[in-house]
Structures are given as structure tokens and as C-alpha cells.
């Protein structure tokens, strides 16, 4: 039975899943697609160095493997995969569009018709089955030529290329797509500059100066895209997106507490600008202290202030822990954003700390800070699934998801948070962004492929597939059945 204190989700709550072209779509060189940022990020021991912008991808050896080029080949399996989403009962599907599939180099005068047709078929199939498309415009993905010609987002010319791309998308999907996200996890450019924004550092370059100048250009691009969207269709809802998860202080030492405050500000900097429309004072002071000077045009402040987003979307996988004293505690492995090991939490196979209450905390902090609707667009457990007798019993994933879904229900029903929906990450297995592995799986549907690229790509429903179908079918009520 459902608990006596009802914790139901709103009737219009959006349930679904999320993927990204750079980890899922594949179709390298097919349909007129140009070479993209993700097509030069290898698997193996050089992956992190390339993603950080510390190793030039052009110096990789000929044996390098680039997992994004095939990924799990959604490009040729899209109908089958969407059928799985329909079967689970999705009411929303978050996916990204590959910029280089629309403009192969980023500078063509006309968009690539084959690319437009591909995404149009996806959107039409979703709408025919009452699934709301939620499109990420730029998800760690951009034409490689814009990187090689302009140094990526270092140059304001890339803003113009981005807006031309946005205009095609907005005009193509006017009246069909309501929800848009301008940039995926925009704050990740501080931690993985090449993966996040195509930034390859030059010898002796001031890395912090470059990162914050790039951030400014992306923030301006996001604001101008929001303006453009509203001019084309005033009903469009435009969101920002950040990699979220609160930093906890290691102890009640005020130095640790303040260190956590500063770490959290690194995340909030981007959404503060995108939601509030101006640079926060703490960011101005930090830049001044560190000698960072952002080159702005006279109209930039007005662009930011007049074109704020409608909702805040975010990924949440784990909370983090920090201390002012580097010698305190031990670090966990596998995390792109460094964190100390929290002794109160369990960890996943890849060292990510499992903290459902941390999701409720994150929801509360974001909603109190911005008082705008929120959308959880990534959440899930990366785990090594094993096929036994043709079945995958991923009870560990079900346990993780159930606890996190209950936490988001508590945030809505007990704390008053306005949450639009939830899209579980990698609803069908895909390539891990952080490690380039297939073994680190998130999906409700297994894809037969290994880390070396071998496999049939055959799809197989996991136990969690049927569990999530029931969650959606009962609008979350099954979560509370004793």
C-alpha cells in the first residue's frame, strides 16, 4: 500500500530518459555529418589529458580508438530505441543535436538537409507517441573546424556560428519542441576545457584567463540564443544546465565551511549569470584578485540582463566533500570534479558517492536561490552489468534510482520545490563521457558492445526497464509501495 502520507507526483510531471549525440548517436561520416570535437577524444590513458586541453589530439597515435564515432549507433537504431522509450511510457526524452550534422564545418551558408531530416523524424515519432522532446543544443559537441580555425570559443565569431545553428533549429521545430537547453553542464568547461568547450591550451597560456573569457562568450551566446528563441516562438522554454551536487565541508571548522562555499560558487557562477542576468559580486572580486580581465563589448551587460532563462536544469549523480587543508581525508577515484571521500556514504564501482538526500538538498538550494522551475535532466548509476541466461538483474540500479526519486518527491511535497520532470541518464546504454568506456553502464536497455568496440549492438531489456515502466505507469506511486 501507499504510505498514509501521500507523496504523489504532479499529474503533469514529466518522466523519461536522456542521452547525448556525442555518446550515443554515432553515425560518423554518415548523412553529411562533419567532424566534431568528440570525434577526436580517444579512449585510454590519453583521454583525460585531451579532455583537459593539456594534450593535442593531433599528436595521438594511429592506433587510437575514438568511441564516440560509433557509440551505440543510435543513428541507425533510432526507431528501435524510441520504441523502447514508448514501451516504458516516457512522457519526455532529452537528447542533443550534433552541431556538425546540421553545419558540418559550422560555417556553411545552408544547413545539411540530411541532418535536419534525421532529427525531424525523431521529433515526429516522439510527438506521435505523446513524448515531449527536450533538446540540448550543444552537449560537449561542436564542429572541429571551429576549434581549429578560431581556437573554439576564444573567438566571438563562434557566437555567430552558434546563433546561425540555433536559428535553424528554432525555425525547424517551431510548434513542435517546447523545451530547450542552450549548453550542457556549462560549468564543466572549468574542469574539462576541451571536452566542455573545445579549448586546447597553448604553452605558457594563462589557463584561468582563457577559461573565463570562453565562459563569457558562451554566456553571451546562451543569452542571445534565448532572445532569438523568444523572437521565433514566444512559447519556447529555454533552460540553462549545470553539473550540480553540493560540496559539503569536511568538518565544522569555519575554514572548511568557507572552502565549501567557494567551491559551490564555481558551480553557481554560470547559473547566477544565466538566471539573474549579471555577474555576481563574488565572481568580479575573484577575477580581480586573480588578474582575470574579461573582454566585453559595451552591449554585453544588457544582453545578459534582458535574456535570462526560463528554467534551471541540472545533472546530479553525487555530492562532494572538500576541506581547506589538502592533507585531510582521502580523495575518491573517477571523479572529474575532485572530491574527498565522505565516510558517511557508499560509493559506486567508479568511486562516485551515493547520496540521495544530497539530491533533495541540491533541489532546495537551487530553488531557494533562483525561485524558477527546475528540471533534473541527468541522474543515474554507472555500473558494470552482467548478462546471465539472457537476463540482467540490476537491482543495485533500481535501489539507487528509487532512493533518488523518493528524495525528489520529498523536495516537492515537503519542501515546495517546483520540479518539472526527471530524465534518467543514459536510458539506453551509451559511452561514458568521463572514461570512454561501455562497461560503465547507466541504461534500462543493455547494448551489446564492449570497451574495445566489439559487439553486435543488440539491445536487451534489463530488470530496471520493467521497474521504471511501473514507476512511470503509476506516476511514481509504486515507489512508496511497502
From TrEMBL:
Record-stated family: Belongs to the glycosyl hydrolase 1 family.
Key word Protein biosynthesis present: no
Positions of the catalytic residues: 378 (nucleophile)
Pfam families from the UniProt entry: Glyco_hydro_1
Protein name: 6-phospho-beta-glucosidase
Keyword annotations of the record: Glycosidase, Hydrolase
Domain of life the protein comes from: Bacteria
Source organism phylogeny: Bacteria, Bacillati, Bacillota, Bacilli, Lactobacillales
Keyword Mitochondrion attached: no
Amino acid at each position: 500500500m501507499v504510505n498514509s502520507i501521500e507523496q504523489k507526483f504532479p499529474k503533469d510531471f514529466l518522466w523519461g530518459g536522456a542521452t547525448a549525440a556525442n555518446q550515443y548517436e554515432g553515425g560518423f561520416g554518415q548523412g553529411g555529418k562533419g567532424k566534431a570535437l568528440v570525434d577526436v577524444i580517444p579512449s585510454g590513458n590519453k583521454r583525460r589529458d585531451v579532455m583537459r586541453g593539456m594534450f593535442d589530439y593531433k599528436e595521438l597515435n594511429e592506433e587510437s580508438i575514438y568511441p564516440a564515432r560509433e557509440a551505440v549507433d543510435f543513428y541507425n537504431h533510432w526507431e528501435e530505441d524510441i520504441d523502447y522509450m514508448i514501451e516504458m511510457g516516457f512522457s519526455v526524452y532529452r537528447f542533443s543535436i550534433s552541431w556538425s550534422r546540421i553545419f558540418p564545418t559550422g560555417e556553411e551558408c545552408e544547413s545539411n538537409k540530411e541532418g535536419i531530416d534525421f532529427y525531424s523524424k525523431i521529433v515526429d515519432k516522439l510527438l506521435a507517441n505523446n513524448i515531449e522532446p527536450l533538446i540540448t543544443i550543444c552537449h560537449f559537441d561542436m564542429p572541429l573546424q571551429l576549434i581549429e580555425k578560431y581556437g573554439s570559443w576564444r573567438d566571438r565569431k563562434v557566437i555567430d556560428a552558434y546563433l546561425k545553428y540555433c536559428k535553424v533549429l528554432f525555425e525547424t521545430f517551431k510548434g513542435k519542441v517546447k523545451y530547450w537547453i542552450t549548453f550542457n553542464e556549462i560549468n564543466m568547461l572549468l574542469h574539462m576545457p576541451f571536452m566542455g568547450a573545445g579549448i586546447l591550451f597553448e604553452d605558457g597560456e594563462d589557463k584561468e584567463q582563457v577559461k573565463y573569457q570562453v565562459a563569457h562568450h558562451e554566456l553571451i551566446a546562451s543569452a542571445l540564443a534565448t532572445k532569438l528563441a523568444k523572437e521565433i516562438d514566444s512559447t519556447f522554454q529555454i533552460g540553462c544546465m549545470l553539473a550540480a551536487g553540493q560540496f559539503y565541508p569536511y568538518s565544522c571548522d569555519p575554514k572548511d565551511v568557507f572552502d565549501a562555499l567557494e567551491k559551490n560558487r564555481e558551480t553557481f557562477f554560470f547559473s547566477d549569470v544565466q538566471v539573474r542576468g549579471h555577474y555576481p559580486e563574488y565572481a568580479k572580486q575573484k577575477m580581480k584578485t586573480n588578474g582575470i580581465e574579461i573582454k566585453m563589448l559595451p552591449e554585453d551587460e544588457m544582453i545578459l540582463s534582458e535574456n535570462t532563462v526560463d528554467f534551471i536544469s541540472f545533472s546530479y549523480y553525487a555530492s562532494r566533500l572538500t576541506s581547506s587543508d589538502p592533507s585531510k581525508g582521502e580523495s575518491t577515484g573517477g571523479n572529474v570534479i575532485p572530491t574527498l571521500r565522505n565516510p558517511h556514504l557508499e560509493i559506486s564501482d567508479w568511486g562516485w558517492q551515493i547520496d540521495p538526500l544530497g539530491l533533495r538538498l541540491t533541489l532546495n538550494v537551487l530553488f531557494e536561490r533562483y525561485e524558477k522551475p527546475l528540471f533534473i535532466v541527468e541522474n543515474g548509476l554507472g555500473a558494470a552489468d552482467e548478462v546471465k541466461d539472457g537476463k540482467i538483474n540490476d537491482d543495485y540500479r533500481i535501489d539507487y534510482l528509487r532512493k533518488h526519486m523518493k528524495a525528489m518527491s520529498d523536495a516537492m511535497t515537503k519542501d515546495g520545490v517546483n520540479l518539472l520532470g526527471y530524465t534518467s541518464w543514459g536510458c539506453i546504454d551509451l559511452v561514458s563521457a568521463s572514461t570512454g568506456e561501455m562497461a560503465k553502464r547507466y541504461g534500462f536497455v543493455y547494448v551489446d558492445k564492449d570497451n574495445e568496440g566489439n559487439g553486435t549492438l543488440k539491445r536487451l531489456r534489463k530488470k530496471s526497464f520493467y521497474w521504471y515502466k511501473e514507476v512511470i505507469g503509476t506516476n511514481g506511486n509504486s515507489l512508496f509501495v511497502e
